[in-house]
Amino acid sequence: MSSQSHFIAEPKIAAIVGCPFSGGQAKPGVDRGPINLVEAGLIQQLEGLGWKVEFDGHHQFEEISANGDPPIGKLRNPRIVSRVSKAVAEAVGYHAKMGKLPVTLGGDHSLAMGTISGTLDTHPNACVVWIDAHADINTPETTESGNIHGMPMSFLLGLGEKISEYSWIQPRLQPSSLVYIGLRDVDAAEKRILKENKIKAFSMHEVDKYGIGKVVEMALDHVNPKRDRPIHLSFDVDALDPSVAPSTGTPVRGGLTFREGHYICEAIYETGLLVALDLMEVNPSLEDAASVHQTVAVGCSLVRAALGETLL
Ligand SMILES: NC(=[NH2+])NCCC[C@H](N)C(=O)O
Ligand SMILES: [Mn+2]
Ligand SMILES: [Mn+2]
Fold first, then answer.
1. In this structure, which of 3, 42, 76, 206 has its CB flanked by the most CB atoms within 10 Å?
2. Domains in the chain, CATH or no CATH each
3. Residues 6 or more apart from 71 whose CB is under 8 A from it?
């Protein structure tokens, strides 16, 4: 660990927040993501990088029976998603307050309502770097799927209709404190929301045009011009090309290469400003065994890269 860290206490402690949860989308199996990542040896790998790692088992989320959570408007599983994210916000917020680095393993990306709320409780000035094929910024009105994993950003920014079940989320993230990298499957309404709120996004077009090094620099210049704000990195594994990370629920071709994904994590680590990391949407039930193995392995190596693993 060569880089100095501005916000993480010494000795550096990473707190693994395992979130076996799939209620923000419709495909079963993404709840197995965190279990497979830990079973693949992630904790030992991070210890090998010099971190002290805390993990006291995956969260046990209370179940609501199949028809116990009827839709609210178009939102599917609205109550359980809210409750789970709230629990995650408390866990992440607690670890962050203790000066640890929360590393949240999903589970689907609706969990980011919790992780980012937890980060902002401790680091109100944090900015968010969101790596994804998708913008996940639909509102309860604009969502076509009703899947809440496509909506966490709108709740965090306070956009769209207010749903009382989600009133625990303080909409305190400024649009200027969010930046995207990797987008390539953005719904029409989401494109409008990004424009109206002047949210900075580097799609795969910009990655092709400028290269990943320049894109990360421009992204940080936007949300963190003085390089003094804490950074929450939320990484949806579907940002990577499906040839690199096939086992995920909503794969989109034309994604980040293995190196581009890792470069982002390495560059964020190098800032010394990382205060929270999410690794989301690994679904070990999708595709064949080799694909699952590949996706879990790449998930582990992205986390290692964000926690200081270097090539030399
Ligand atoms: N976290 C994700 N993989 N999100 C995919 C979202 C897809 C689509 N935009 C939707 O609203 O349903
Ligand atoms: Mn995605
Ligand atoms: Mn996502």
1. 42
2. 13-306 (3.40.800.10)
3. 78, 146
Instruction: Check if the beta carbon of residue 111 is closer than 8 Å to that of residue 104.
Output: yes
Which helix (H) or strand (E) segment holds residue 131: the answer is strand 127-131
Q: Does residue 145 have its Cβ closer than 6 Å to ligand 1? A: yes
139 three-class SS = coil
Question: Cis omega before residue 11 (within 30°)?
Answer: yes
pTM (global) more than 0.90: yes
Give the distance (Å) from ligand 3 centre to CA of residue 249.
10
Nearest 10 degrees: Cα torsion 8, 13, 15, 16 = 120
Among left, alpha and beta (phi > 0; psi -120 to 50; other), residue 140 is alpha
Q: Is the CB of 150 under 6 A from ligand 1?
A: yes
Residues 6+ apart with CB under 8 A from 18: 34, 35, 38, 55, 57, 58, 59, 105
Picking from 141, 72, 145, 136, the residue whose alpha carbon sits closest to that of residue 110 is: 136
190 C-alpha to ligand 1 centroid (Å): 11
Residue range 35-75, pLDDT digits in tens = 999 999 999 999 999 999 999 999 998 776 656 899 999 99
Whether ligand 1 lies within 6 angstroms of the CB of 149 is answered as yes
Helix H or strand E segment including 152 = helix 152-157
